[in-house]
Amino acid sequence: MLESLFTIDNLTTFLVLTALETVLGFDNLLYISIEAKKVDPAREAWVRRMGIILAIVLRIVLLFVVLQLISLMQAPLFTLDHPWISGAVSGHALIVLAGGIFLIYTAVKEIYHMIGVDDLEHEGDAAPRRSVQRALFWIVAMNLVFSFDTVLSAVALTDHFIVMAAAIIISGVLMVVMADAVASFLQRNRMYEVLGLFVLLLVGVMLMSDGGHIGHLEFFGHPIEPMAKSTFYFVLMTLVAVEVVQSRYQRRILAEAAAKKREHAQTQHG
Predict the structure, then answer these.
(1) Vertex 181, ends 178 and 184: CA angle to 5°?
(2) Which of 43, 168, 194, 254 lies 20 to 30 angstroms, CA to CA, from 14?
(3) pLDDT (tens digit, 9 = 90+) per residue, 158-206?
(4) Whole-angstrom distance, CA of residue 160 vs CA of residue 201
């Protein structure tokens, strides 16, 4: 049992999933920080830490529930037999397909919001103080929404509950320890938030391919094949490499522009 758990594939999945859970948890962390600002400043740090701890517990419970539902829904619910689509769709396949659609929708919506809508975070600054109990209630309620993407991402990458739970716990501990630093870093480096959203989109595509394969779906006689883990990791590393190169190249362009501006100013004064 332990030998099959501590494999290179599981360890790699654990590291990737931990990083992914941390990045995907940024929206949750941001909401918790905003909600914590509405309570007494003396309790703000406590509410922020407690909110993150509640998020960890809720994600593990939700992960267990999702895995139990999947194990109980293996039998086909209905079959499709048409010239352009066929398959035997089970409850498991529906959960995975729905999860993929949800992740893709979430990623596209957040990307659209990021490029098309101004940040409205400042609207709550003048709101009256909330009680700690009410703030924690809204944090738990919103965690139900925010937890779905992280749980479905975990289910998409591995079928080992221990690996998934450990990644969620470790990412949560990192968020507790580095809540202020992580929020500040991501606010200064928003390109990593963009990267997280595209990784989320990629995980949604992976879930769609897995769900189609589980449901034995065929389109025009061509079966849907699941995305290989090696393909996922390659695309993921490519996205990270592009982001790093682009950010460094952008800093170089800005430095060159600043140097030309200084040179032009010196010429004008000379």
Answers:
(1) 140
(2) 194
(3) 767 787 788 878 877 777 776 666 556 655 666 666 777 787 788 788 8
(4) 22
